[in-house]
Amino acid sequence: MQDAIEQAARTLASAPDILVLSGAGISAESGIPTFREAQTGLWAQYSPEDLATPDAFARHPARVWAWYSWRRRLIARGGPNAGHRAIAELGRRRRVFVATQNVDGLHAAAGSTDIAELHGNIWRDRCTRCGASETRDVAEPVDDGPVYCRSCGAMARPDVVWFGEMLPGDALETAQNALERAAAVIVVGTSNRVYPAAALVDAAVDSSRPVIEINPDITPVSDAVDIRITSAASEALPAMLTSLDAISANG
Ligand code: NAD
Ligand code: ZN
After folding, report:
1. Contact 161, 132 (CB under 8 A)
2. Is 40's pLDDT higher than 80?
3. Which ligand gives the minimal distance to the CA of 81?
4. From atom 26 of ligand 1, which residue's Cα is the shortest distance away?
5. Alpha-carbon distance 127 to 149, whole Å?
C-alpha cells in the first residue's frame, strides 16, 4: 500500500492543478453513515427512496424532516476528519478543486475553498413556496420538526438533490471545467454508481489524466484507474500529503 501512496504523491508532485471527486465514504469516518450503512441503524425500516424523494416529502414531511434533523445532528457531532483536513491542506500546496456528492458541508468546514456541491447542502433550507433559502450554522438542531420559511411562513425543505431531481445548474459545469484544468484527479469514497456525478469520474478515467482512487472496496472504475489505494480515506490522504511534502523537500 505504501508503494501506491508514494506513486500517488509523485503524481501529485508534478500536478499544479488537482480535481478531487468525493463521496459519502470520505465522511463515513466522521460517523456519518453512507446510505447503505444507514439502512442498518435507527432508520433501517426506510430506504433512502422512502425519505430522499419529492414524493416522500409531499406525503410525510415530518418524517423526512426528522430524518434530516438526525443526519444534521450526526454531521454536527462528527465534524470533518483527517481525510477532509488533508484535502484542505493539499489546497495550500496546489490548486485544488473539490466536486463532492456529499451534502454534509464537511469539506468547507475543514477549510477547502473551491467546492462544487453536486447534490446541494444539508445546512441550507429552501422555502417550498417562495424559494428563499437560508444557510444555517453547522450545529445540532434543537428539535426534529419541520423548518418554516422566515419570509413567508411556508414549510422549507433541505436544499439537497433528491432522487429524481435535477442537479443544481452550475455545479456540474463548474466541476467539468475543473476537470479540463486538472493535471491529476483523486476519486475518494464514492461507489461511482450515482449518475450524473459518476459521469465526471468516467470522463476523468477516459481522459489522459492520471486518476488516483481511494476506496477500500472495488468500484466500476477500479480496473481503469492509474493508481488504486485500498485503505480508508482518513489514513490514505494524510499519508499521501506526508509523502508529497517529503518529495517536495528533497527536490
Ligand atoms: P456510496 O454510499 O454509494 O458509496 C460510498 C463509497 O465509499 C463505497 O464505495 C465505499 O466502499 C467507500 N468507503 C466507505 N468507507 C470509506 C472510507 N473510510 N474511505 C474511503 N472510502 C470509503 O456513496 P456515493 O458514491 O457518495 O453516492 C451515494 C449518494 O448518497 C450520493 O448521492 C450522496 O449525495 C448521498 N449521501 C451523502 C452523504 C454525505 O453527505 N455524507 C451520506 C450518505 C449519502
Ligand atoms: Zn417562503
Report:
1. no
2. no
3. 1
4. 23
5. 6
Q: 171: Cβ below 6 Å to ligand 1?
A: no
Q: Which residues are found with C-beta within 5 Å of the ion, ligand 2?
A: 127, 129-130, 132, 149, 151-152, 154
81-90: per-residue pLDDT in tens?
Answer: 999 999 999 9
> pLDDT tens across 46-79, in order?
888 899 999 999 999 999 999 999 999 999 999 9
CA of 188 to the centre of ligand 2 (A): 37
CA of 228 relative to ligand 1 center, distance in Å: 17
CA 69 vs CA 79, 109, 128, 136, 237: distances in Å: 15, 18, 18, 12, 30
60 in catalytic set:
no
Ligand 1: which residue has its CA nearest to atom 13?
A: 25
DSSP notation for 131-193: --EEEPPSS--S-SSPPB-TTT-PBEEEEEPPTTPPPPHHHHHHHHHHHHH-SEEEEES--S-
- Could you write out the DSSP letters of every residue in 200-230? HHHHHHHSSS-EEEE-SS--TTTTTSSEEE-
What is the whole-number distance in angstroms between the Cα of residue 10 and the centre of ligand 1? 27
CA 157/CA 124 separation, integer angstroms: 9
